Amino acid sequence: MGTRTRTRAAAEQKQYAIEAEWTEADLALLEDLKRAEAQLPDDAPRALLSVRLSVLTDDTTSPVRQELDLRVLARERGCRVVGVASDLNVSATKVPPWKRKELGDWLNNQAPEFDEILFWKLDRFVRRLSDLSTMIDWCLKYGKNLVSKNDSIDLTTTAGKIMVTIIGGIAEIEAANTSTRVASLWDYTKTQSDWLVGKPAYGYETALNEDGKVVLVINSDASKALHWCRKAAMRTRAASARRMVKVLVRAGLCGPGLTAATLLRRLRNPALMGYRVEEDKNGGVRRSKVVLGNNGKPIRVADPIFTEDEFGSLQKSLDTRGKNQPARNPDGATKFLGVLICQDCETNMTVQRTRTKGRSYEYLRCGKCRGGGLGAPNPQEVYSKLVDDVLRVLGDEPVMTREYRQGAEARKEQQRLEESVSYYMTGLEPDGRFTKTRFTKERAEKTLDDLIKQLEAMDPESTKDRWVAVHNGKSFRAHWEEGGMEAMAADLLRVGVKCKVKRTKVKGVRAPSIHMKLLIPRDVRDRLILKEDDFAEGF
């Protein structure tokens, strides 16, 4: 039966390109809206537009239309648009607002720069009731408002808060129904011998047979690569996975991004026998296992690349060469990963273990130097030296935390003082109410002087919404003594501190000489400021 291969689009949907196309009419409307916005007063409310789209279909509203509609809404509300957080190809069910690339940056780092968040429809913003509740709490804490183009949402009123909760509940129910349908489809697919949906395992591709039915067929190049790997693994002197990768890439059978781990995972996939498989989530290692049908037998979905005997013998050969690595440390084998780097190749230093005559040894090695470079035999000594150097340089720095200060009260006080000054200045003009007697004039002049002094004493920054750094009473030495090496490693990685490790061969000595150089950014004090995670519970 003849077949032809093809690429299928899931549910005939397509991702929306980041470079959205604007028509001439759209651009003309955008310019008109910007000109109208330029006429707004300086103290006009500031609006952030949130645009989101997971996939573009005929039923969805394009990002261009969403932005233009929201700009029209901002004009109607008398708001100045200060930014557009455009998160395209992002699912609102899977990714909450504070974890999206653009909107998340505005929420976590640029909160003082806007007063309202405008979105086209609630399901364009959130689809989970818990996410909506988190956003409402955040808005109330920071004095922000949520406004929807097509829903009656306004956090400044009690009715608006109730409405946003009801609509959010409906959106979550709809998302749950969608999730249930998708899960049901996958569960049904697993029991079928026909290929209905999903990405084929390496070695196979989808094709249409003469009846227009989608089937799995063997990819000739991938099959050739897999069979060559099996022969190389079955030799008396078997080739290593790294050697196989080099040959396959050089021959053009695999892309340059292929790694030894990926190749081994492909060779161990039972889908190569033509069976349906699913992810085996036990054991903490990425593996696939065969799905059994109602009769207790494997479900065949394609012709086999390897027979069961060929696949079994391949697994035995791979097991023979496999290294029995110790169980992974849940905290990670390497402390200060991303901080300790090799001076020569500037890649991360990682801990590698070897066993010789029943004894286990640990070495710090890099990623690109030949053979991992000279191994630093005692990682703990390197860690201790790094801790001492960091404490000597940064240990006495005060721990500063970022706090949000709203300027609403200060702005009200400034307005009151300005109105009072204007009132007394008008009253002190010729024939004014305070010039009729000497006593009233002197009292008014004294009051005016006091008001002007109060107005001049006000800090202009206090009238703005802003972040301020506040000392929490501790030094980083005390902070790291409480949190341990893990807290120090997290802070160093966060602020961009690096430590270059140079290993030098010493004649007559097996272990190399270790030299360490601490690299600290010039703005380290600003980077060290601790930022409270307002959405920690939302994760």
From TrEMBL:
Kindly list the residue ranges recorded as spanning the membrane: none
PROSITE patterns in alphabetical order: RECOMBINASE_DNA_BIND
* Keyword terms, alphabetized: DNA recombination, DNA-binding
Q: Which Pfam families match?
A: Resolvase, Zn_ribbon_recom
* Entry keyword annotation includes RNA-binding: no
Q: Which residues form the Recombinase domain?
A: 201-324
Name of the molecule in the record: Recombinase family protein
